[in-house]
Amino acid sequence: MNDETRYYLRDLLILGLIILLSVVLAEAIQFSDQKTIPDDISFLDRIVVYIFFFIPLFSLSLLISYFYRNKRNLETGRLKSSIRYRLTLSFIFVAFLPSLPILFLSSNVTGKLYERFYGIDIEEALSSGETLILNEEKPKKRLLVEKTRLLESFLRIQPLHLESLVAGASKLNLIQNDEFYVGIYEKEKPILENRALKYRPLEKNFKIFAKTSNWKEFASYRPDYCMYFIRIPFPTGNYNLQTGIRIHKDSERNVYSVISTRRNYDRADLTKEKLPYRIRLTFSIITVAIFLLAIYFSLLFARKISRPIIELANATQKISMGDTDINLEIREAGEIGALIDSFNQMVKDLKSKDAELMQSQRIAAWKEVAQRMAHEIKNPLTPIQLSAERIRRKMNSENKEQFYEIVSSGTDTIIKQVRVLEHLVNEFSDFARMPAPKLINQNLEPILLEVVKLFEHTPKLKIATNISKGFPQLFLDQKIISRVFTNLLKNSIEAIERKREKEEIPEYEGSIRISAVLSRKIMRKVAVISIEDNGIGISPELKQKVFEPYYSTKNNNTSGIGLAIVQKSVIDHSGHISVDSSSMGGCSFQIELPVS
């Protein structure tokens, strides 16, 4: 699994946790008290509450993630997450911000259109029709109530069987008339009933007949017939007397149409209060779905747009570190493809020019070294030649003591200058065959402090070290980097000595300040080690020459390759060294080493 896939999975996990937290908080805060929850709350209503909790939590997570990633980008110098994350946020805000006013405007306009469209009160019309139907039923209801009371009184004093039911119903003309129904029920099962009736009563829309009575009256409305029923419980047992009368004869279909329309109207909750709410709810759900799609596509588009930019940025970083074997793949046409193609061509040209430049620099460097080496060799050759010529002239001298003195003095000079030549040759040989560093990830502080201990007892000299907290480990060759710091400290001490001699202040207090800090750049982190002194300093025109082999500002017979060795050692560590004037009055050498 690559880093990019891991980042996406992490973001999806965070999104899932936010959704889960929104649901948990909504249930704990809004739906924990059962007394305050409406009975008719729907699943969509819960979804809306979840969304109201999700939006602020998601926005807060975006802000926290944005500031956290910016902080991490500054610490790590990672360009990848910075570009892609900002592009993603930009796409999300572009999709989200316009959707809010569109949501409010569309829901409000729809609500107003609904109110105008439903200006006629449908509910009032249906209620009026239902009232007319009920008024038409009243005479037959009263007739059924009277006959039911009489039949109940008759059955209470008679045994409960079919003959008594038929006898009582016949007296009241309930059997002879096919518009009536009579039956005895045990719970909901009929045990005695008028078989002449071809339709079975169904209990629908029943309502209590009287508050002080257990009578129940209910109606059954069908397209082919309509019935009105009364059910009376007996004092003993689980028996009920049920009677019925046919209503709305020859107009059943019209009555059924009005009643069913009223029921459907109530079932659909088509009221002025709920329909606009559900319309707005629908718009909200659609907006959230579009918003989630916008997040998904923003991640895809940000990845597609940022990938070539990130590849170019990483390639430039590799080129800055000296790797020119780079050829980016052209995945798409257009401006980005042309840019990558131009970059690849530039890298090829740069590689070719770099090889030519390296060859030219190599020739120029050896030419410069040869000239300086010839000059350095010529200096001791002159006294050697003069001493040899002087000895030759005195070979025939009769004064043996003077001759021996000249020979002794001349040979001493020759030996001394030969040693100088030997020293030059040895230093040149060491410079030419410096070993490759063996880099190990380790702490710089103990190496630096060990070098400082070598010079801390130098008279009239103060050395101050300041290594920042949390200074990272570096890939170093301990021996080589120790020689680098030793050379730089020796150079600073000699600069302080020259200042004492120049200004004729023997008691001049020397000071060297060493600091190590972590510096952040766009694409990487670097460790910066500075060594400053209050010595004689360096002029601006000599700053570019101090690292050249066999160049020296000292008056003694030094070879001038110490700082050249220092520079080569730093370069072998993939670092950079520079010199500048110090605020202390002397020189400031600054070494930059990469942090892994």
UniProtKB/TrEMBL annotation:
Assigned keywords, A-Z: Kinase, Membrane, Phosphoprotein, Transferase, Transmembrane, Transmembrane helix
Any single GO CC term annotated in Swiss-Prot or TrEMBL for this entry: membrane
Reaction equations catalysed: ATP + protein L-histidine = ADP + protein N-phospho-L-histidine
Transmembrane segments: 12-32, 47-68, 89-107, 281-302
Residue ranges annotated for the Histidine kinase domain, each copy included: 372-596
Subcellular location: Membrane
Pfam family, any one: HisKA
Domain HAMP per the UniProt entry, residue ranges: 303-355
Biological process terms in GO annotation: signal transduction
This protein's name: histidine kinase
Source species taxonomy: Bacteria, Pseudomonadati, Spirochaetota, Spirochaetia, Leptospirales
The EC number(s) this enzyme carries: 2.7.13.3
Molecular function in Gene Ontology: phosphorelay sensor kinase activity
InterPro entries: HAMP_dom, HATPase_C_sf, HATPase_dom, His_kinase_dom, HisK_dim/P_dom, HisK_dim/P_sf, HssS/ArlS-like, Sig_transdc_His_kin-like_C
Recorded topology in the membrane: Multi-pass membrane protein
